[in-house]
Amino acid sequence: MKFDRQELKKIKPEQLRPYIRRQEFKDHTVGIAEGYTQANLVILPQRYALDFMVFCQRNPKPCPVLEVTEIGVSKLKYLAQEADLKTDLPQYRVFKNGECVDEPYDISRYWRDDFVGFLLGCSASLDHALVSSNIRVKHMEKMVVPSVYITNIQCAPAGPFKGRLVATLRPIKKNELNRVIQLCSRYPLSHGSPVHFGNPKEIGIDDIKKVNWGNPCEIEADEIPVFWACGVTPQVICLNAKPEIAITHYPGKLFVADQLMAETALIA
Amino acid sequence: MKFDRQELKKIKPEQLRPYIRRQEFKDHTVGIAEGYTQANLVILPQRYALDFMVFCQRNPKPCPVLEVTEIGVSKLKYLAQEADLKTDLPQYRVFKNGECVDEPYDISRYWRDDFVGFLLGCSASLDHALVSSNIRVKHMEKMVVPSVYITNIQCAPAGPFKGRLVATLRPIKKNELNRVIQLCSRYPLSHGSPVHFGNPKEIGIDDIKKVNWGNPCEIEADEIPVFWACGVTPQVICLNAKPEIAITHYPGKLFVADQLMAETALIA
């Protein structure tokens, strides 16, 4: 089945979800269902769940918690009432002892009675807020995944969960940086304000063209590189903790919630 | 030892803590160490900790999480580096199977290797923000605990944790309500914006003079009763869940952190 990405901007999450569930839509979710919250996913066995949730509390910029499922229950209650974590994301990554062993489109065969699902805020609301305020966000124009880097910023550890912050890049016009900080500060559940701007080397990025994920982009003469905490961080953290099993979303292929971005904004 | 409450306004948390530890200061902490964050405390065995943390995530207004301790570790790492949960609050309440069995000034003899401590935001930052903006907060003038009520608002449940929201009352001048909502919205980690204003009966408070805790106060002709989520909520929730053991702060006698209130404010 072929989807027009411009038309997907206008689709409602509840209309999109059946396509995802039937594995007819397996693509990334950038720019889809404009105005609706998107969420990163981390699923862990219960014995890791408390430490992971404390990790999120200590690192709210990369890991803002939107919803945590009941133990063993794959259905959501808050972000979307009828959604099922087993089938309702376009693609997943399954890790065993820190190694990616599968990238399935449905995780029913992996589901366990002790699984706890964490839905974490992503940068979709942020991007939408910027674009809606006439701030140029280049990867949104192309509707592609932005440049993603593993930085040298250490996250605050919790139990076995520790490691470096993953960040996304958005080149911003120098004279718009102040406004950009104000706008994204309204969305703490969508990574909030930047973690760094200016010289990428200061956060361990030696070559801006060498992305760890996503698509490289140009920094123009009137732009400054601005970095935000990224929801891929928990994937890297999972690799480090080597749980016997962990399941995450596939980068760029997120859960699309029924909750509006505006519902998570602070101080309108 | 006798303390002048006006002088206590200016004390630094690190100066106050030794008095608390030696049980020379056992009083409430309202108005103490002006400008510093205060925190409510809930300590639970590990097996309840994930469900409780999910309860907090689902009910951020009564239970904004400031810090969660490592399993079995009574020392804090973030709110105050040298503080110990066993000794550094003026008074505690110990619950066994939902019943209060002790109100000690030191919980060393109760401490267990599986204890997890939750430090939760309280209304101190909120009160300070209001007073600093020339909003009259009556209980702050008298430096007493405000009126506290058990409402009929049901919290979102998580595992065994469920029950009704506890709220504090602050009578606010009608023409200042808008400004009050704006000011307290900046402090989501301090209960944030009100949960109700106007007729107390709409949230199950039939007689405003009958407080569940704290001190009754008058509503004057130009004032409207405004209610905020209260950090006593987790105590009520603990009673309902009947864990074999739970320890909380004594109402009004909170942990005084080294973190400034200004550090937790959103969008200055």
Outline the secondary-structure elements:
Two copies of one chain form a homodimer.
Chain A: H1 5-8, H2 13-21, E1 36-45, H3 46-58, E2 65-68, E3 92-96, E4 99-102, E5 115-121, H4 124-132, H5 138-142, E6 147-154, E7 164-173, H6 177-185, E8 196-197, E9 223-229, H7 233-241, E10 246-249, E11 255-260, H8 261-264
Antiparallel strand pairs in A: 1-5, 1-10, 1-11, 2-5, 3-4, 3-10, 6-7, 7-9, 8-9
What summary fits the major beta sheet of chain A?
7 strands, antiparallel
Q: How many domains comprise the coordinates of chain A?
A: 2
Helix content of chain A: 10-25%
In terms of quaternary structure, the protein is: homodimer
Mean pLDDT of chain A: 93
The radius of gyration computed from the alpha-carbon positions of chain A, rounded to a whole number of angstroms, is 17 Å
In the CATH classification, which architecture of the largest domain in chain A applies? 3-Layer(aba) Sandwich
Q: What is the total tally of β strands of chain A?
A: 11
Overall structural class of chain A, as computed from helix and strand content, comes to alpha+beta
